[in-house]
Amino acid sequence: MNQDFLAQWQQLKKLACDESVKDLQALFSQSHNRATSLSFEVEDVFVDFSKNWITPEILSSLIKLANASQLAKKITHLFTGHNINVTENKPATHTLQRQTNPPVQMINDRNKMFKVAQNYSSGKWLTAFGKRVETVVNIGIGGSYLGPKIAIQALTDLQMKSKVKVLYFASIDDVRLKSIVNTTDIERTLFCVSSKSLGTIETLKNAHAIKALLVKKKNYQPTQNNQSFVVATANEPKAEQFGVPKSHVLPFDNATGGRFSVWSSIGFPLLMAIGEKAFLSFLAGAEKMDKHFKETNFAQNIPVLMAMLSIWYRNFMQLTAYAVIPYDANLKHLPAWLQQLMMESNGKMHDVNGEEVSVSTSPWLFGDHGQLSQHAFFQAFHQSKDVLPIDFIGVLGPQTEAKKYLLINMLAQSAALMNGSDDDEKQFNCPGNRPSTTILLKELTPSSLGQLLSMYEHMIYVQSVIWNINCFDQPGVELGKSIARNIVEHIQDDTLEEVHLDKSTQQLLAKVLEHE
Ligand code: F6P
Fold it and tell me: How many CA atoms lie within 13 A of 323 on its CB side?
């Protein structure tokens, strides 16, 4: 790290020693325009940072830290195809996926996906049973599941208008398999095998389990066009091995990360659910946020401010957790999507040079729909001895009584967390001064959803720049998978004794095998 960066880091450490920054009410009384001066708006997204432990001095130091990390250059690198995914020696192309005019190969991939969706939606192509598609089952996990899931749930109104409903088959799960088969007309179902690598064991097993069921049926007669499977992947050759014709393979660029892939053909189930126009608007929304991120100075740049604030809490206030609480049922899958995005991207201890990072990286992120969380874990938010920053997310319109009620509850919670209460009986006391950010969307539309997801993607990228880590790989998740593969292979060869396992795992494995 350069001297300037270290100097800014030291300066922030000094500022963090001043406990008065945690007195939110005092901060508000010191500055009458605090709420407005710390709120920013871009397109459909309004963000109020004023209930946070920040002062103009802290913000300015955080921005200096961002400058010292060469963030401007790194943002340019993201958008100009530099090999920023250093361990895999490739760029990160998720922002290209949503460009109005992406490179030729991407536009071809997008057009192919649109064509396939049109063919199925219009009934020109049928399933391998000669029937029209009514249901799409997404067979995929991680980013190949969470991306479509958050987006389809968020756009439920549009999905309800379309004729296609979407189900998910993510984990290996006999019960889920049975429930899909028993509750869905599988002859009218299109199975979308969604896997960037086509090497993910869960997805392959689930896809083969479904295929085994389908081929047993006498009237399963795939033709060149009528197929019950499409495959969305960056590994085209392997897709053909799965036995679908090339026309049903939906390729996407290999440099688009799995958890950043909803904009690519991994979004096929979303496209089937909401249609082409809305899907394009989803991409355009994300592109608007990209433009804001690229072109706005850091002091007004929403993703940059969100990231720098999270750095402040994680590294200078030593807060280990981070909560994301949408007060809208249609955003209930946002925390799970963001959990993968943040923790798989930045939950790392090595920097881009392979050196150990000297500070903490990704916070532990969790969350749920606000109304449900309020009656579950908010007690700890208000009175636990530990504090965590919270993102509250509300949707303003179109306003109904129910929506208004939810929004008022959200505001009441953030106000209560900040202002606390002073009761004679100590156990009823809420200490207050608990920080939060409130994000308001004008409406939940394809465009505003695109803006929101893109905002968080860029926040995560900025965090990674400050920590100097590669947010586009996930080496940590490989270890457990390879141990599992090794055990399975040795069980098959009857050579389990060759596997070196600790005593606890040996004992537990013996229990598992006893039940075979
Ligand atoms: O195991 C983690 C992971 O590699 C994620 O990064 C990814 O989103 C998920 O598995 C699924 O991968 P794929 O799309 O290649 O099946």
Answer: 24
